[in-house]
Specification:
The chain is 65% helix and 0% strand. The protein has helices at 17-40, 44-86, 150-156, 160-176, 178-183, 186-229, 240-254, 257-285. The protein has 286 residues and is mainly α. Helix 4 runs antiparallel to helix 6 and helix 6 (186-229) packs across helix 7 (240-254). It starts with 16 loop residues before the first helix and ends with a helix. Residues 168-209 form a coiled coil. Belongs to the RRP36 family.
Length: 286
């Protein structure tokens, strides 16, 4: 069926090329018709049975391949288990995630993962990191420029005390005004009172600090003056306890009469409390 038909041109008496081509085409058509007749003679049952046989052969080959691969895997697993039991192979331990890599030496450089990009800004001990720094940063108080001179800062920004005092007066006036209190809720009034008290305490703290600095500075000036005049050979520096006493004395002198009475009453109560505690302790011992 697959043999090719060659035109017999030996005994042909064709006079022109057209006749030659026509004879070739007629022979080709006859061959195709014969091959179609051969396939058409087969029944549908024979064709379906042939198709089933071909499919069965294909599935059989696939199942053979799968069974061979499974047998190979089973044999390799059994061999590895035997070797592990004999002690030739070590058991694989499960890897722990997030294991910290320890340095071999404390002076060795720290190891870090190459998957994580290194920050361009190096962290320097003593300076605030990017996490600690806030959005609003004042370079005048940056630690990179050294420690801030609080006395100089206080002197430069002393004019802010006037604004604070004015703000306290406005708050006091608003709290005394009944019409203004009616427009505010209880929560707003409490917040205003709290802000006024915090601002007062801040202002008092600044003034007390200024008073302490003035006392210490004046004492230093006196000592230096005595050294220049020859009254003293070496300066005498005040101890912390002596500084505290001088500051308390200056505070007491600068207070009003009502404030002095309150301070004295507070001290008297504190002294009485200490005495009562001592008496109770003595009674318990007896």
């Amino acid at each position: 069926m697959n043999s090719r038909v060659k035109p017999d041109l030996a005994g042909s008496d064709l006079d022109s090329e057209d006749d030659y081509l026509g004879s070739v085409l007629t022979q080709k058509n006859q061959f195709e018709a014969d091959s179609d007749d051969d396939y058409s003679s087969l029944s549908f049952g024979a064709l379906s049975s042939a198709q089933k046989k071909l499919m069965a052969e294909g599935t059989g080959k696939k199942s053979l391949k799968k069974s061979r691969s499974a047998n190979l895997l089973d044999s390799s697993d059994s061999e590895s288990s035997e070797l592990e039991n004999d002690g030739f192979l070590e058991e694989k331990k499960p890897k722990k995630k997030g294991k910290v890599q320890h340095r071999t030496n404390k002076h060795a450089p720290a190891e870090s993962s190459s998957k994580r990009p290194v920050s361009k800004i190096r962290e320097i001990p003593g300076l605030k990191t990017s996490k600690e720094s806030t959005l609003y940063h004042d370079i005048r108080f940056d630690a990179a420029y050294g420690k801030a001179d609080w006395n100089r800062i206080r002197k430069d920004y002393a004019f802010l005390d006037e604004y604070r005092e004015k703000e306290i007066k406005d708050m006091q006036k608003a709290l005394k005004d009944k019409k203004a209190l009616l427009t505010m809720s209880q929560r707003e009034a409490d917040n205003l009172k709290f802000e006024m008290q915090s601002l007062k305490s801040r202002l008092d703290t600044l003034k007390n600090r200024d008073l302490a600095n003035n006392i210490v500075n004046s004492h230093k000036k006196e000592q230096m003056q005595k050294m220049r005049t020859g009254e003293q050979v070496n300066p005498y520096f005040l101890k912390k306890s002596e500084q505290r006493k001088m500051i308390q004395k200056a505070k007491f002198e600068s207070m009003r009469l009502n404030q002095r009475e309150k301070v004295m009453e507070r001290k008297r109560k504190r002294r009485l409390g200490k005495e009562f505690k001592q008496l109770e302790f003595r009674n318990l011992q007896q």
